[in-house]
């Protein structure tokens, strides 16, 4: 018991003040209001459903009686026709000619006209068909397909009734001018000796039932349907309920129709719920007003303490994420919290100054390392160049010495010009041509090709970025090879990155050698100084996300891809802006 007494105050003190106020307001305001709304809704819903059910049941029973009476009247009419002695005598007549058939049909029409008159529901009869083995007689308007009375399935279903009435679901018929949907009522015609003479068919328009639906005063959003034995709809009042949940519908059925069909009605509860919805909306409005008042009081109580603490916490999170102190917010509130915020901002200013100083020192260190790497490359390059001049002097004596010296002069000028920063890719490619001209004196049997799109020529790259890779391809790829060689330099853009590939068709390397060379890019091997230096220069200048990737296959060749960020030359951008202006 003593432990429980101490836990509750501790937990309560750990809850923030706004939540404490909400916990107080909830049982006092929300719970009674919500309980009242719930019981009011349930009471009104139950009474409304009961009233609607009683109303719908009464109307459905009345409508079912009318529909059943109308259908029975058609059955009675068909029974009078099939038991009339004169009609049976005419039906047994076998006309010998078209004229005899016309006389028989006229006599049948006169007799049927007498039976047809006298009842309002008979106006829905579209046609009466008497079908015998020798002829088909039509009273009323015929259809193109004779209302399908010759169909074997139709005859079979009528015959199974043994003279009883057989109702068929509505179908669409066409008389060549108009289309209509109609029921068919079929009976088997027998003479006084019960010999089968043929079939009697009454074609009844679906309006015979549809008009009854329209006469009944249901609500506008009430769906009425006449269903067959399988529950499939035959006739409706053309009202669609739509996709409504079963909980929001009232459904009733009446299966007392004589032919086995069923009447069904569906009503939406939205109208029944509308008054209670109005009351609930008013109650919710008052409830939200009370909640709003409580929130205002909570805000006023917390304005001097809770909100300043939250803002201080936000400033601390932003400072931890690296937001500069100048963007941190100052605010009002309790004096102690304001002083804590000012102290934190002052500390962040001091940290920012320390970080800037460290970044400057790091940049100086990287620049020094880059210069050291560049100086490491220069003696190696000059040695190979002078060695090529020696070979030219020994083999060709005085021929082409001027071109050799010119190319060397261009290379030295390019190396010593500027501050050693990035240059356009076009300049780097141009100096490669001079370098290749010098190397062709020593390695005569190779070709040099460049495939660089014009839009990439002004992308900035490090000076002498590609020359060590060309030299590597000559010494390690083409020199040991026995067939003519080729070196290709190509460039493509990949999003915000530039990919420059130096590929040769030399002897290539096996997988183990490639792996050792890749590991050597980040280590300190004794060979392949040029490749490792290029990789280190790229990472020192752009970061560890950039550098070299190597692919090789023995007997096929080697390709080294340089990956650097896509940064356009500043002078080229200024020219583009002036041209647009």
From TrEMBL:
<protein>
    <submittedName>
        <fullName>Sensor histidine kinase YesM</fullName>
    </submittedName>
</protein>
<dbReference type="GO" id="GO:0005524">
    <property type="term" value="F:ATP binding"/>
</dbReference>
<dbReference type="GO" id="GO:0005886">
    <property type="term" value="C:plasma membrane"/>
</dbReference>
<keyword id="KW-0812">Transmembrane</keyword>
<dbReference type="InterPro" id="IPR036890">
    <property type="entry name" value="HATPase_C_sf"/>
</dbReference>
<keyword id="KW-0902">Two-component regulatory system</keyword>
<keyword id="KW-1003">Cell membrane</keyword>
<dbReference type="InterPro" id="IPR003594">
    <property type="entry name" value="HATPase_dom"/>
</dbReference>
<dbReference type="Pfam" id="PF02518">
    <property type="entry name" value="HATPase_c"/>
</dbReference>
<keyword id="KW-1133">Transmembrane helix</keyword>
<dbReference type="InterPro" id="IPR033479">
    <property type="entry name" value="dCache_1"/>
</dbReference>
<feature type="transmembrane region" description="Helical">
    <location>
        <begin position="21"/>
        <end position="40"/>
    </location>
</feature>
<keyword id="KW-0808">Transferase</keyword>
<keyword id="KW-0472">Membrane</keyword>
<keyword id="KW-0067">ATP-binding</keyword>
<keyword id="KW-0597">Phosphoprotein</keyword>
<dbReference type="GO" id="GO:0000155">
    <property type="term" value="F:phosphorelay sensor kinase activity"/>
</dbReference>
<dbReference type="InterPro" id="IPR005467">
    <property type="entry name" value="His_kinase_dom"/>
</dbReference>
<dbReference type="InterPro" id="IPR010559">
    <property type="entry name" value="Sig_transdc_His_kin_internal"/>
</dbReference>
<feature type="domain" description="Histidine kinase">
    <location>
        <begin position="462"/>
        <end position="568"/>
    </location>
</feature>
<dbReference type="Pfam" id="PF06580">
    <property type="entry name" value="His_kinase"/>
</dbReference>
<feature type="transmembrane region" description="Helical">
    <location>
        <begin position="283"/>
        <end position="307"/>
    </location>
</feature>
<dbReference type="Pfam" id="PF02743">
    <property type="entry name" value="dCache_1"/>
</dbReference>
<keyword id="KW-0547">Nucleotide-binding</keyword>
<keyword id="KW-0418">Kinase</keyword>
<dbReference type="InterPro" id="IPR050640">
    <property type="entry name" value="Bact_2-comp_sensor_kinase"/>
</dbReference>
């Amino acid at each position: 018991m003593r432990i429980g007494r101490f836990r509750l105050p501790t937990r309560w003190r750990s809850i923030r003040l706004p939540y404490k106020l909400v916990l107080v307001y909830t049982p006092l305001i929300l719970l009674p209001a919500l309980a009242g709304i719930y019981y009011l809704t349930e009471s009104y819903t139950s009474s409304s459903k009961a009233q609607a059910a009683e109303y719908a049941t009464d109307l459905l029973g009345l409508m079912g009686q009318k529909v059943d009476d109308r259908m029975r009247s058609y059955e009675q009419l068909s029974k009078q026709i099939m038991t009339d002695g004169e009609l049976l005598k005419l039906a047994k007549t076998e006309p010998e000619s078209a004229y005899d058939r016309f006389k028989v049909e006229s006599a049948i029409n006169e007799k049927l006209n007498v039976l047809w008159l006298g009842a309002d529901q008979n106006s829905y009869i579209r046609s009466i068909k008497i079908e015998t083995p020798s002829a088909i007689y039509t009273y009323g308007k015929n259809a193109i397909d004779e209302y399908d009375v010759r169909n074997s399935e139709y005859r079979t279903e009528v015959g199974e009734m043994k003279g009883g009435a057989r109702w068929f679901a509505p179908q669409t018929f066409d008389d060549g001018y108009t289309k209509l949907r109609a029921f068919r009522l079929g009976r088997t015609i027998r003479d006084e000796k019960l010999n089968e003479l043929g079939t009697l068919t009454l074609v009844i328009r679906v309006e015979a039932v549809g008009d009854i639906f329209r006469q009944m005063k249901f609500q506008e959003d009430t769906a009425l349907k006449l269903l067959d034995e399988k529950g499939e709809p035959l006739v409706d009042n053309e009202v669609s309920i739509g996709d409504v949940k079963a909980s929001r519908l009232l459904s009733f059925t009446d299966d007392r129709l004589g032919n086995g069909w069923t009447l069904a009605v569906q009503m939406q509860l939205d109208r029944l719920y509308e008054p209670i919805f109005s009351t609930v909306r008013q109650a919710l409005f008052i409830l939200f007003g009370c909640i709003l008042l409580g929130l205002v009081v909570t805000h006023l109580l917390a304005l001097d303490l809770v909100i300043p603490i939250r803002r201080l916490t936000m400033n601390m999170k932003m400072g931890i994420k690296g937001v500069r102190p100048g963007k941190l917010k100052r605010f009002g509130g309790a004096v102690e919290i304001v002083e804590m915020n000012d102290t934190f901002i002052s500390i962040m200013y001091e940290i920012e100054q320390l970080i800037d100083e460290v970044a400057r020192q790091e940049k100086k260190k990287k620049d020094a390392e880059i210069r050291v790497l560049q100086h490491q490359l220069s003696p190696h390059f000059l040695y190979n160049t002078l060695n090529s001049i020696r070979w030219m002097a020994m083999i060709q004596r005085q021929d082409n010495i001027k071109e050799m010296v010119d190319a060397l002069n261009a290379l030295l000028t390019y190396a010593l010009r500027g501050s050693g920063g990035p240059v356009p890719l076009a300049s780097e490619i141009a100096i490669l041509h001079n370098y290749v001209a010098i190397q062709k004196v020593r390695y005569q049997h190779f070709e040099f090709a460049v495939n660089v799109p014009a839009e990439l020529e002004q992308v900035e790259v490090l000076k002498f970025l590609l020359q060590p890779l060309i030299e590597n391809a000559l010494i390690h790829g083409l020199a040991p090879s026995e067939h003519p060689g080729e070196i290709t330099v190509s460039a493509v853009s990949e999003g915000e990155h530039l990919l420059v590939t130096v590929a040769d068709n030399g002897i290539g390397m096996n997988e183990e050698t490639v792996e050792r060379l890749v590991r050597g890019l980040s280590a300190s091997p004794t060979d392949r100084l040029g490749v490792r230096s290029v990789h280190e220069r790229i990472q020192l200048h752009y970061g560890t996300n950039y550098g070299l990737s190597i692919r090789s296959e023995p007997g096929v060749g080697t390709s080294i891809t340089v990956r650097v960020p896509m940064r356009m030359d500043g002078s080229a951008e200024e020219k583009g802006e002036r041209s647009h202006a």
